[in-house]
Specification:
The protein has 274 residues and is α+β, with helices and mostly antiparallel strands. It has 7 helices and 10 strands. Strand 1 and strand 2 form a beta hairpin. The protein is elongated, with a radius of gyration of 27 Å. The chain starts with a helix and ends with a helix. Bound molecules: copper (II) ion (CU). The site of copper (II) ion (CU) has 7 residues, from loops. Copper (II) ion binds next to loops.
Length: 274
């Protein structure tokens, strides 16, 4: 029985490795879809974030395997030692305590420094890509119970924090240009929500009273999920929207159609009646 417990602790790292191994091919790893079965990050920044994820996963894996192995080893040694041998008690090892304080401290400081550039590019406005500074925010995304509202400036205008007469509105559909970083302002109309585009690895809380600039870049045209990642009420699960990434002309066309639709006064143009 004693040997069983030693083997028990050796067993779990094997389970962990095996489940990580099969998870990717089964689409359990990152959100996968038909055209992206491995759930790869669909944005350049997302790939860098995944890099950080794998680095931390690697460090954690080493620590996990190490501790499980030490545990299993200690149990195995005690299970197989002769009963006549007296037990050896030890308590308080100065050098051990130093090691397990200094090593994790170094690891944490290393991670903190190593991730700084990615963090800055993602969150700190002055480190945003230059294109976002040239273009300014393309739209305003407002989360509310329980939908996403998009507000675009009228074609040819710049986005203002206050709604303007010519602004264009859409619900649960966000159109962005491909191949260029797109900045938008995120806010909430009521409680706290979180903008989460899993395939693009973009996640940002929407906080009452704040207008938060966020940017994303989608190289490949297509449809991507936008969900709420903050339990915001009974309809939280309904906050599903689509990010449509398409070439610039398509976005412009979409906005022109939106404008026409919005300005339509219910009277069909004469030409259409013929
Ligand atoms: Cu929400």
């Amino acid at each position: 029985m004693k040997k069983f417990w030693a083997l028990f602790f050796f067993f779990w790292p094997a389970v962990a490795f095996w489940s990580c191994w099969i998870a990717r091919s089964r689409g359990w790893w990152f959100p996968a879809s038909e055209d992206n079965p491995l759930g790869l990050a669909m944005s350049p920044l997302g790939q860098q974030i995944d890099g950080l994820f794998y680095l931390i996963l690697g460090i954690v894996a080493v620590v996990f395997v190490g501790t499980q192995f030490a545990l299993g080893y200690a149990l195995w040694m005690s299970a197989t030692k002769e009963d006549s041998k007296p037990a050896h008690y030890s308590h308080g090892s100065h050098s051990l305590e130093l090691i397990w304080t200094i090593v994790p401290a170094f690891v944490l400081v290393f991670i903190a420094l190593y991730q700084m550039n990615v963090w800055a590019e993602f969150r700190v406005q002055s480190y945003f890509p230059n294109e976002t500074k040239e273009d300014g925010p393309k739209l305003e995304v407002t989360a509310r119970q329980f939908e996403w509202r998009m507000r675009y400036p009228a074609p040819g205008q710049v986005l203002s924090n206050q709604p303007q007469a010519g602004d264009l509105y859409a619900v649960n559909e966000m159109h962005v240009q491909t191949g260029r970083p797109v900045k938008f302002n995120l806010r909430t109309g009521d409680v706290q929500h979180a903008f989460f585009a899993p395939q693009l690895r973009v996640k940002q809380d929407a906080v009452a009273g704040l207008i938060i600039p966020v940017w994303l870049e989608v190289p490949k045209a297509g449809k991507y999920d936008l969900v709420c990642a903050e339990l915001c009420g009974w309809g939280h699960y309904k906050m599903r929207a689509t990010i449509v990434a398409e070439p610039k002309e398509k976005v412009e066309e979409y906005l022109r159609n939106l404008e026409q639709e919005q300005n339509f006064d219910g009277v069909a143009p004469a030409a259409a009646e013929e």
